[in-house]
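Handoff note, outgoing to incoming analyst
You'll be picking up this chain. Sequence as last confirmed:
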Amino acid sequence: MRPFDPRILRVVPDTRRPVAALAGIGIVQGIATIATAFALASLVVAVVRGSDLTGPVLWTGGLFAARAVLGALSETVAARAGATVATGLREQLLAAWSRRPTDQRDVTDEAGEPPFARGRSRALTLATQGTSAVEPYVAKYLPALVSAAVVPALAIACLVIVDWPSAAIVVGTVWLLPLFAALIGATTQEDTERRWGALTDLSGHFLDVMRGLPTLVAYGRAERQVDTIGEVSQRHRRATMRTLRLAFMSAAALELLATISVAIVAVAVGLRLTHGSMDLLVGLTAILLAPEAYWPIRRVGAEFHSAADGAAALDDILAELDSPHCPTAMRDEEGEDPHCRRAMRSEGGGAEDVVTVTGVDYTHPGAKGATLTGVELVAGPGLTVVTGPSGCGKTTLLELVAGIRRPDSGRVSAPPVHLVTQRPFLGAGTLRDNLTIGGPQESHDLWEALREVGLDGTVAGLPDGLDTRIGDDGFGLSAGQRARLVLARALLSPATVVLLDEVTAHVDADSAATIGEVVGRLARTRTVIAVTHQSDLVARADAHLALRQPEVAR
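Most recent structure output, in case you need it:
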């Protein structure tokens, strides 16, 4: 693994400042560490010789206090940098996935594998455990790396000035630590990659089982999968234990080597002090400086193992973001991704705000017959309504356009969409929280969206306004208010396509009329596809798709 991958700074620019601060703090910490060795040696010599202790005590106390402050500051900056990198990478991965049109999300590369994380389960693993594993790599490994680059060099330089024989011993042995660490690290990296692969296999197998659970239950094969998941879990456990054994063994080897090296320096200094050929201050300074040449390298070796998972995950994440399939790091002069734009407007795909459904067939797992057969739809800017009897696949069609489901045959092409389901998510929290689920918004934009849906007066009349809390599923709001709130959230969405699934269901006539007007205004600037039974929305429609009842009910 690389000591530091500079691609992080390119992909997550917000990390540049904390990483630079870490480097600066590490340099100052190195200087303070070396100064502490001199101050401690002076203090001990002053005590032995009965000299005035005021100066040595003040210097020693001040340096220890400075090191404590620098250590706390380094931990704080490192933790912030780690969280920033993990969050930034997760957002980049999700953004890269969401920007891809639905007809491109499951295409395969030359190896026959989906280019985005080589499968949905692997994408899920990267976006969760993978990005979280990168955090200790940044928060712990990078500060240790900075110390290893600064402190040993300063310690050896000072030893050359103070006592060149001790410096010669350190120079002759210190190179063994990075050599052994590199050899052990190569073995550990291979093992870590195997363990990361085992974790991916476990996630992928579990996801496959969950997808096929209805079929497995129908054929009485569900119990067998319990044993299979257990076997995959045991494989991951064995890989983890093997990595831990390597970590402990490598740490012990580096510790033994460093201890022997420091002991050689101490013995040499002790012999010269005994023979009177060395001053006490020089001898104590050499003994205190020698461990500082080894300790940062040992710390890097120890932190390497906690960061190895993050390094393996980081390689995969950056490879995804650098891939030609919607890479977030590649932009043209207009700030757009040329690959994504070509995918959006690829042959048969339509423009940025056009949805195309061509010859789509879909059958629900375990169903006796097809839910959708040969569906054709081209929806551009304006309002397209989808009608039909219950069970004819209207909701399924919206889920296919949103990319939630994959067609059995045919093709669905759509830009990023905003889907409003029959039971949209409204979580326990404030109205502001529920409006800004898709991303941060300015307060004036929130009020403008509420005004569009006719909720501004209601919210303004509440004691806490936008900070008024609601319960799960919008508890505390009426059905009409909940419907208008999720429409306001759709207005705030940057998606050019909005999918509405029975938004006027379960609301009173006045709320339904208001919602109809909002949908009409929304359709003036975006592509709106609405599943509805309401005649008012049908009358407003620019296009109408009537689905038929499937021949065999599922």
